Each structure stands twice: as structure tokens, then as C-alpha cells.
Give the backbone structure.
Amino acid sequence: MTNIPLYNLDSPKHIANGTIHVRLVSGLFQRLRYLVSAPLVTLFVVMAWVQYDGKQAIQFSLAEHQLRVFAWSLSWNDLPLLAGLLIVAALILFVMAMTIGRAWCGFACPQSIWSWMFIRIEDFTEGNSRKRARKQPLTFNRIIRKLTKHALWIIVSAVTAFSFSAYFFPSRELLHGLLTFTLPVNRP
């Protein structure tokens, strides 16, 4: 048995003082990732606003004890049917993960999509990982860039939180309540 040779390599350019600065990569698979993830994120945000027959098209209505998906409505009594559908969906996800590997996790999983969006914002506002890894003095321009980055992160987070909440509470009422500061607060 032969020993594997070890080399003392210098740290990559995106690592400085023990801090790793995530870098964006480019290429065919990143373009494919964008082509898959952009429509999924858009669909997630837009479907919270789609109306069907005078009601929100997709809504988990806790007040009415219903799950509405366009004309299809399930009540709590239909939970065994919903559980069966979720089991089938989980099996499909399992089979897809086993056959095509990281297709879901690498291209469409919400965690990776939002991580990628936050890295894009950081790259846009503060520059690439090599620039961020360099020790820089805290100037007015750098403070503005950091504030802009965090403001954009907050906007993306707020839109995500609102969109997710809108699947459980009617989106138009939720927006009106947010804008007028009249959201109901249930106290125990």
C-alpha cells in the first residue's frame, strides 16, 4: 500500500483570516439552476395572489378547516386522502433523489434557491469573494454597501415571509392589515 502524498496548499483567495467568503460560480449548470429556480420562486410568490371563484386559489384555511387548491377543496375529514397524496409525493421525491441524485437539492430546493439569492445580493452590493476577503477599512462607501446589502436581504426575507403567510391567511386581507397596522393578534 502506498501513501497518498500530502501537499501544503495555500488557502484559496476567498478565505481570509480563517473566514470563508462564499463565491459564486458560473457555467452551464448554474444557468440551468437559474432557469429552474427563477420560475419556482416566481410561482411561489405569485400564487399567493391568484384568485379563483372569488377566493384565493391556493389556501390552507385554518378558520374554515379547509385546504383549497383552485376548485378542489379538502376538509379535515379528508385528511386520510391528503395523507395518501403526501405519501405518494414523498415516494416520488425519494425515487427522483435516488435516480437523478442532487437534481432537487441542487436546482429546486428552497434552501439552496434562497441561499443563492442572498449570495447574489452580497456579490452585487459588496463585490466578489476575493474583494470581500481583503482587509478593507470601514469607509462611508463600504458602510452604505453593507446597509444596502442588509436592506435587500430584509426585503427578500419579508417578501418570502409574506408569501408564505399568505397561503394560510388571505393575501389581500393580510396586506391591508400590514399597511394599516390592524392585523389581529390572538393572545393566550
